Every structure is written in structure tokens, then in C-alpha cells.
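User: Here's a structure from my thesis project, written as C-alpha cells. My advisor, Dr. K., wants to see whether a designed sequence matches the one we expressed. Can you design one independently, without my sequence as a hint?
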């Protein structure tokens, strides 16, 4: 079944892949230095012909994901990091932070490779529960499906009962979205006696899918694979039905570095994912994602030869992802500015029955502050997420510098 899901690029030798990737990278470096104000400054003094192999990447400075907001505020809307006028992109998106991202024509984010690995094919009908509003996830999957000739039902987020009814009537056979929402859909179908058994396989992302959740989805009738990508980078890595880690996409160069350094860690050691994209319109060089992973060295049985990583293994900083949305420390600070008479805030993230739950701990040293409902409204406006709120007395929150505490476990 998996043979048709591969293409020749996935079967290349390491030498062939490096030759292709680094030749393309050198051309993009020259293009970026000539046509991008931001990259011209960042790459000053770097000659493209000095970048011949992986070790040479150390000559390129690392760009932190957290720096994008700063670049974009100084040079709106996209930080001067594109090689064409931002107004000429097909779409402009706004992710929490806010961070703005462009969207181009065709399979701009290259997600079709992950779908192909999951055996999505022409004639399938895909139910897409990623958001089409402001953030690009919905379009990332929609474009990929279009490239493969797959029909799309753009379900988006929310209105769960209505979505379950639509699935029962239109009977799509593929699902894309977060694994936790798929679980909700499948369980609600049983609860409401609505047949959603047409959903046979899914491509999930936006959050972790631990073995316990994957097994639960299998029990409910829908087998899933994971993809790992971001709004900035597009597809980074993807699973296959062999379940042997995640293969890095053919148009990215992935490094695993020691967080906070420029040092590549030995294969197998956990470090931060740093990704270079081979995107001529929106190149990102040595882009530090803040996500942790590790390189797998064992040879794959499925025949693919690209670098493999173990998938998402946590965060290298306090920025984290909740229900498919990034939450950043600066957003917690923004919430604090909107509240009166508080001394500290801490967002606590947990998971209950494989669903993310969040609670804002609000520390106050006075008796009168905003009502809990008003605080919830402020949180929702900033994070685009609903949160519980607990008000505690001064001195309750430890003095440890943590503003986002992730207590989720994935056993």
C-alpha cells in the first residue's frame, strides 16, 4: 500500500539530496540578499558559495521565531524577509502574537507530501477542521488537497454538533485537523447516534498525538498519521504508515541544536529544531522553532532516505501550542497590562481525556479587581482561546520566572 505513496525525491541518496538542497539554497541566498531588505542585513558578509555542506550552515546566524514580531514591527508587514512585495502574495495571515505570514499559489506549504504519505489520493473527500480564519492552517491543507485532486469540505473550527451531522450526511473518508477534535467528533457521533464511520484515516497536527490518543482514535475507527509543520515554514516532517518516526520534507534542511546555542547536537540527542526552507518567495534561514526533537539514525524499512526525527518532544522555551494555537509569554504580559491591581499571572496548561485545558492564575494584592468573566474576555481576546480563571492572594505564585506552565503529560 505504501509504495505508491513515495516519489523519487524521497528515495535519493544522501549525496543526491545534499547536492540538490545546497545548490538550491545557494541560489536562494543570492536571491534573498538581492531582493530582501531584511535578509540583506542578516546575511551581510555571507557568500553563498561558502555554503556547500551541512557544517557550513554554522556561518549563517540563527533567527529565533520570537524575533519575527520584532522584525515585523520595524519593517511591516513581513519584516522585510520576503523576496517580493508582500502585497503580491495570494494571502496574508495573522497568527497569535501577532505574527504575520504570507500565503502563495499552488501547494505553497508543501503539505501534499504528508498527505501522499498517508495515502490520500484523487477521488477522496477530505474533512478539514483547521481554521480558515486569519491563521493559515486551513489553507495549508486545502491547497495540498487541491494538488492531489482531493475534494474538500471546509469544516473549520467550532459548531461540533453541526459538523458531526455534516460528516454523517456527506460521508468524507479523510480527516485533517487536531487529533483531540477528531476524538470529540467520533465520540459525539456515537453519542448522537450519527454515523461518522466514513472517516477511515486522518492526517493530524497542531498538537501532540501520544500513543494513548492514537490508540483511542484507532478504537473509534479512524487511523491517523501525524504531520509537523508551522505557518512560517510549511511542512517540516511527516509520518508514514510504517510508524518509524517522521521524515523531513525534501525542501527543508533540518538541524537539531543545543537550545540557546549554535551547536548541532549528536544524532539521537534531544535539541531544538532549526529549519532552513527552500522557499524562493519567503525564505527562512536557520529558523529556530522552539520545538524539541532528536534525529533517528536507524535505516528506514520503507525505503525513504531523508533524515528522520522523533517528532515533537516538547518546547525549548515557554512558548507552547494549545489546541493548535501558539501561546507566547509576551501575550501573557499583554493580558497583564489590561488588568488592574495584579502582581503576577501564570497560565497553567493541562490535558484531561486528551483535551487541552487552560487556567489563568491571577495573583492580586487587593480585594477589588476585574470580575472573572471580564478577565476571561480579556484572555480570549488576546489568546483566541477560552480559559478558566483562578484568583489567588499575593505570594501564591512562585518567584521562578515561569509565566506559562505546561503540565501536560503524554503517556
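Assistant: Designed independently from the structure alone:
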Amino acid at each position: 500500500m505504501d509504495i505508491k505513496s513515495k516519489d523519487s525525491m524521497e528515495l535519493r541518496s544522501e549525496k543526491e539530496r545534499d547536492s540538490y538542497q545546497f545548490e538550491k539554497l545557494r541560489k536562494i541566498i543570492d536571491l534573498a540578499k538581492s531582493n530582501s531588505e531584511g535578509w540583506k542585513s542578516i546575511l551581510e558578509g555571507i557568500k553563498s558559495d561558502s555554503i556547500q555542506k551541512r557544517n557550513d550552515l554554522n556561518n549563517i546566524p540563527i533567527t529565533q521565531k520570537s524575533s519575527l514580531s520584532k522584525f515585523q514591527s520595524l519593517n511591516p508587514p513581513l519584516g522585510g524577509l520576503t523576496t517580493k512585495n508582500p502585497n503580491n502574495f495570494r494571502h496574508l495571515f495573522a497568527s497569535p502574537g501577532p505574527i504575520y505570514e504570507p500565503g502563495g499559489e499552488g501547494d505553497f506549504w508543501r503539505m501534499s507530501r504528508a498527505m501522499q504519505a498517508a495515502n490520500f489520493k484523487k477521488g477522496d473527500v477530505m474533512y478539514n477542521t483547521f481554521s480558515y480564519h486569519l491563521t493559515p492552517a486551513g489553507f495549508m491543507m486545502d491547497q495540498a488537497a487541491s494538488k492531489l485532486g482531493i475534494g474538500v469540505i471546509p469544516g473549520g473550527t467550532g459548531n461540533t454538533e453541526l459538523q458531526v451531522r455534516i460528516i454523517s450526511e456527506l460521508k468524507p473518508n479523510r480527516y485533517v485537523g487536531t487529533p483531540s477534535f477528531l476524538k470529540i467528533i467520533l465520540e459525539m457521533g456515537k453519542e448522537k447516534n450519527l454515523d461518522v464511520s466514513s472517516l477511515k484515516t486522518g492526517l493530524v497536527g497542531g498538537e501532540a498525538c501520544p500513543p494513548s490518543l492514537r490508540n483511542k482514535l484507532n478504537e473509534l475507527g479512524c487511523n491517523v498519521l501525524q504531520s509537523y509543520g508551522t505557518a512560517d515554514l510549511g511542512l517540516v516532517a511527516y509520518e508514514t504508515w510504517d510508524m518509524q518516526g517522521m521524515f523531513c520534507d525534501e525542501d527543508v534542511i533540518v538541524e537539531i541544536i543545543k537550545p540557546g546555542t549554535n551547536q548541532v547536537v549528536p544524532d539521537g540527542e534531544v535539541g531544538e529544531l532549526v529549519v532552513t526552507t527552500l522557499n524562493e518567495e519567503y525564505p527562512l534561514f536557520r529558523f529556530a522553532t522552539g520545538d524539541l526533537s532528536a534525529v533517528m539514525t536507524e535505516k528506514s524499512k520503507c525505503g525513504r532516505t531523508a533524515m528522520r526525527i522523533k517528532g515533537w518532544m516538547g518546547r525549548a522555551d515557554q512558548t507552547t501550542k494549545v489546541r493548535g494555537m501558539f501561546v507566547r509569554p509576551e501575550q501573557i504580559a499583554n493580558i497583564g497590562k489590561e488588568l488592574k491591581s495584579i502582581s503576577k499571572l501564570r497560565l497553567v496548561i493541562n490535558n484531561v481525556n486528551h483535551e487541552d485545558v487552560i487556567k489563568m492564575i491571577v495573583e492580586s494584592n487587593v480585594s477589588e479587581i476585574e470580575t472573572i468573566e471580564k478577565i476571561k474576555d480579556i484572555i480570549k481576546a488576546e489568546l483566541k482561546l477560552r480559559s478558566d480563571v483562578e484568583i489567588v492572594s499575593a505570594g501564591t505564585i512562585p518567584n521562578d520566572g515561569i509565566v506559562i506552565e505546561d503540565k501536560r503529560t503524554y503517556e
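When you compare it with your expressed construct, this may help: Residues 14-35 form the longest helix (22 residues).
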